[in-house]
Structures are given as structure tokens and as C-alpha cells.
Write a structure and sequence with these properties.
about 160 residues, about 0% strand, mainly alpha, UraD-like
Length: about 160
């Protein structure tokens, strides 16, 4: 855990090194957020990440969304994604559950052109599946916005895990 005073004193490069992975494979978000310092609170820091993402072009936002892994995948995950998915029980699915997630991942990607994003921390696999099954039928615009909202929740969880309140 880092203190805000230490975070506010970091160089831009040190800040990006420390927090560049908060946004999955997208250190540009941390770089942009670094310019909002000094942060008065952990919430200010989260808001800076959110504002940077929201100010980006739709193409940059889509790229950020596409860097997120499929849920319950066998692919190599970042440390944060692996820990989050394990905590939600997605690393210990039955063969039937895994097949169901794989089918939903495929259908979702084919329909929207990006992976299903769900901030899994604190959720059960049943809650995640219920959301997945509901959202796969949404419009593309609605899902793009839902994905960005979930990415912002991921920012909050990851920053909360690293920064003292």
C-alpha cells in the first residue's frame, strides 16, 4: 500500500511504473491520470483514471476494452486479472461451467467485437453468469458503455488495493 503523499511526489515515469497496469495493458491511462496530481484522496486518483479514459477517443477506449481477457479463459492473464478471476471462482469451474463461459465469450465477442467486461471482485460466478446472459442481448452502444463502466469499477478495485485511504 502506498501513501498519497508518496504518490503525489512521484515522477511521471515512476507513477506510470507503479500504476500503469491498473488499466489492462494501457499505461496511457496512468500517464494521463498523473497530470491530475496532487490527489487529495484515493477517490481523486480513481476519478483521474476515469476522466483520462472518458476523454480518450472511442478508438482508444475500444483498444482498452479489447485488452481485457475473456472471463474464465485458459489464456495467460495479468497478475491482477488472475487474482480477480480466482477470487470469483472462475479458475475452478466445472467442465460444464467452463463450456458455458466459453460459449458466452464466443457469442459476446462475435456480437460486439470486444470481450465481456465485468469487474469480478466480490462477485460470485453465478452473479457473473447471470449478468453475462443478460448483457449478451444488449445493443452494441449499450454494451460499449457497460464495458467502460465496468472498466471504471476495475480501476477503483485495483487502486483501492494499492493506495492507502
Amino acid at each position: 500500500m502506498r501513501a498519497l503523499s508518496d504518490i503525489n511526489a512521484m515522477s511521471e515515469a515512476s507513477f506510470v511504473d507503479a500504476f500503469g497496469d491498473v488499466a489492462e495493458h494501457s499505461p496511457w491511462v496512468a500517464r494521463g491520470a498523473s497530470f491530475a496530481r496532487p490527489f487529495k484522496s484515493r477517490d481523486d486518483m480513481v476519478l483521474a483514471f476515469e476522466a483520462t479514459m472518458r476523454a480518450a477517443s472511442p478508438a482508444a477506449q475500444l483498444s482498452l476494452i479489447r485488452f481485457h481477457p475473456d472471463l474464465a479463459t485458459k489464456a495467460k492473464l495479468t497478475h491482477d486479472s488472475s487474482r480477480e478471476q480466482q477470487g470469483a471462482g472462475l479458475a475452478s469451474l466445472t467442465a460444464e461451467e467452463f463450456a458455458h463461459f466459453t460459449d458466452l465469450n464466443t457469442r459476446y465477442r462475435e456480437r460486439f467485437g470486444f470481450p465481456f467486461i465485468f469487474a469480478v471482485k466480490g462477485a460470485t460466478k453465478q452473479q457473473i453468469l447471470a449478468s453475462f446472459e443478460e448483457r449478451v442481448n444488449n445493443s452494441k452502444d449499450m454494451e460499449f458503455e457497460m464495458a467502460l463502466t465496468q472498466v471504471m469499477r476495475i480501476f477503483r478495485f485495483r487502486i483501492d488495493d494499492r493506495v492507502n485511504a
